[in-house]
Specification:
Layout lengths: L1 H6 L3 H32 L4 H13 L1 H16 L4 H31 L1 E3 L2 H22 L3 E2 L1 H25 L17 H36 L3 H7 L1 H18 L3 H27 L1 E2 L2 H24 L3 E3 H21 L4
Antiparallel strand pairs: 1-4, 2-3
Length: 342
């Protein structure tokens, strides 16, 4: 019904609705993230584990919601299969690249220096790069089938179980991996209230994702610009804002475990859960630019980041942050110049 209503609007009004929808998407998902983090602290999880699992999953709510909503629209016939697929896949990969470059750079700029433990690099960054490589491999035939979706989501469940076992076996508090604020939730009643607010926020996220997808499809049809490019530069940036706010908040509180875990964990969650669940529902058509530019660029960015950190013994400062922010500018400019059409 929302998509049909958007079709009755003039293009300028439709774009205004789209902007409002993305603002609502960011605000509602941020509220959900905040409450889920409070619940995780109440349950006594470590900052790094929380960042890698609970927070990264929560901050991926915009991507997950957009994929599942698009899949439902594709199945119902209200969203074009190729355009809908291009929009959400472009936004997914675009969000990951933003996080690996711009968000990381801003967090480092605020913290002046971040330190990645070697154990964190091997346990988290290799799976991050591998998940992107797997998406490239599975999508090379131009389709994410339901089997592909099951593989991606199944790997996420297995990886989460591994992290949980590792957390219970090895976790002990270290500087920069602790909660420095007073917990927001101290009673069971407050926990139930936070859960209810999370559910309300996620409902608003679903509705705003529906509106945003409808508007972007309208723009694609009216302008002829590729859906994946629009997804990269609109939903991709908007979807990365929860990770940005959460990571910056962690840096301000000196809880670097949350900042690092959120950024890397979200880059694992986005492809495995969002693409996995969406593909399980409807399957997705994979535009060629994603296979020859976006996914390879995401892999290269992740590999450069890991190589840089290994070379610098796990440390990244403001000069390194500037380099990675510059990589995003190169990525977007080349995308718009050479891969504008799907």
């Amino acid at each position: 019904m929302l998509i049909e209503w958007i079709g009755t609007l003039t293009l300028p009004w439709a774009m205004a609705v789209g902007v409002a929808a993305m603002v609502l998407l960011v605000l509602s998902s941020n509220l959900a993230v905040q409450k889920l983090v409070d619940l995780a602290v109440y349950l006594g999880l470590s900052a790094t584990f929380m960042g890698m699992t609970v927070v990264s999953l929560a901050t991926s709510i915009p991507e997950i919601t957009a994929h599942v909503t698009a899949s439902a629209g594709i199945l119902s016939g209200t969203l074009d299969f190729k355009i809908g697929s291009a929009i959400v896949l472009g936004s997914n990969i675009g969000s990951d690249v933003v996080q690996q470059t711009v968000v990381l750079g801003l967090v480092v700029w605020m913290a002046r220096t971040l330190y990645f433990r070697r154990y964190f690099l091997w346990k988290s960054m290799i799976p991050m790069i591998a998940s992107t490589a797997l998406c490239l491999l599975l999508g090379w035939d131009g389709i994410y089938s339901r089997l592909d979706g099951a593989i991606l989501f199944g790997i996420f469940l297995a990886y989460t179980w591994y992290l949980y076992r590792d957390e219970r076996r090895h976790y002990h508090a270290v500087p920069g991996d602790r909660h420095t604020d007073q917990p927001a939730i101290t009673t069971a009643a407050q926990a139930w209230g936070a859960a209810a607010l999370t559910l309300l926020a996620m409902t608003a996220t679903v509705l705003s994702a529906q509106m945003a997808l409808g508007v972007i499809e309208r723009v694609v049809n009216d302008t002829g610009v590729g859906g994946s490019l629009i997804g990269v530069v609109t939903l991709g940036i908007a979807s990365a804002l929860p990770e940005l706010t959460t990571a910056l908040a962690g840096a301000r509180r000196d809880a670097t475990g949350i900042s690092l875990g959120t950024l890397v964990g979200s880059n694992i969650t986005n492809p495995l859960v969002a693409i996995g669940l969406g593909s399980l529902v409807s399957t997705f058509a994979v535009p060629r630019p994603l296979l020859v530019w976006d996914l390879p660029w995401e892999m290269v960015t992740g590999a450069l980041l890991m190589g840089f950190l290994l070379w610098r013994k796990g440390r990244i400062g403001r000069i390194g942050a500037f380099y990675f922010i510059s990589l995003y500018a190169i990525y977007v400019i080349c995308r718009a110049l050479f891969f504008a059409v799907d």
